Amino acid sequence: MTRAGTVTLRRLNLAVAVAIAAAWCTGRAETLGDAWQLALARDKALAAAESDVQGARDAERAARGARWPSLDANATYARLNASPAFDIATPGGATFRSGPLFRADEIAAGSVQLKLPLYAGGQISAGIDAAQRTVAGASAGEDSTRSLLKLDVAEAYVGVLRARRALQAASSSVASLAAHASDVRQMVERELVSKSDLLAAGVALANAQQDQVRATNSVEVAQAIYNRRLGEPLERSPELDGQIPVDMLLKATPVEVLIRRALGSRSEIPAQAARADALVSQARAESGKALPQLALIGGYAHFDNQFLDRQDFSAIGIGFTWNLFDGGQARNRAAALISASRAAENRLDDLRSQIELQVRQAWLDVQEARARSKATGEAVAQAEENLRSSRELYGAGLATNTQVLDAVTLRISAINNRDNASLDESLSLLRLEYAVGAL
Hints:
- The protein is α+β, with helices and mostly antiparallel strands.
- The chain has two domains: 29-66 and 121-290 and 328-435, Outer membrane efflux proteins (OEP); 69-119 and 296-325.
- The protein is built from ten helices and six strands.
- The protein has helices at residues 3-25, 32-42, 44-65, 123-189, 195-230, 255-265, 268-288, 329-375, 379-395, 401-435; strands at 70-79, 87-89, 95-97, 106-119, 293-304, 312-321.
- The strands form two sheets. Strands 1-4-5-6 form a four-stranded antiparallel sheet, with no helix packed on it.
- The protein starts with a helix and ends with a helix.
- The relative contact order is 0.12.
């Protein structure tokens, strides 16, 4: 992508961010897609990755520029305390003294030199190849940063939904226990139950209120984390759509197929491979410094003087240099780069193993969450009926206070299990999408 293309993309991202912000101002619920677009437009880590790509492209252009002729110009001016002169003793014993060699005791000189490399020991081609590999690695790194950002935003989005549902469950628990405590108080006043039932109901209510306070704090923390990922004010309380777009086909795909897909799609793999290849090319460039260097040289010079027959000179020729001994610097630098390349290759092998583990773990998490969703599908309705029945029986004197409190606990546990299973299934599918390189 050219510099102009990068600027255009950033302007487009800014326009998308403005459009999303305008939509929020109108009260539209915030979707996960909206959150992704805004995070992609504002995230500093992604902006840094984009700058890395642009810098790598600039470095590639610089490496290609080494093939072109270089043009150097220099000028010199000096003022002497006294202009020198020729003082020549002749064979006859006489002395010949010339006039001042420079007018007004001043020296003025200038030159222009054009140099075209003919052979550089492979340094230029190796440098270009290393720069191209670096561009490829930076581009793949940008893709990896973008995918990881989307996963982080999705996890923060789900985190807000989870915290809010937990708060709803905690508030529901407080409401149920408050109603039960009120019923027990009336029964105690009528001497239908012992005062210990009222005390137990009060303790349960106090504990539920404490859980509600913790859940409220968790919502604030989750919202702050989410807002930070989007570059929004931390205190903002967004209205979320709650729908999480996922690829439902992934959970029915065999894990071996997903692993092969991940190894062919994850951008971290080509990024790491490009780093290893770039180091090999850099090693070749270093080795080239120990080889002969050949260049075509042409130039023009002006030397302001009074003793030569002219002041302007031009020349063309071949320049040859060969550093025969540098204390082993080039050889050792090349060896160091080769060792770094081998280390990068080992990290690449380890990365493939990590990706395979990520895919398998995410796939297993999807299967687990899916099974939990099925198991908790009817549990909430059963817990609601159990609480209703327990309160009626307690009112009729056919059930104990503990049975009612347990029923409230079971109901809240069933609600939390259902909500967590549903959110975990969606989040696990998103993690699986990331793991296979599809996010």
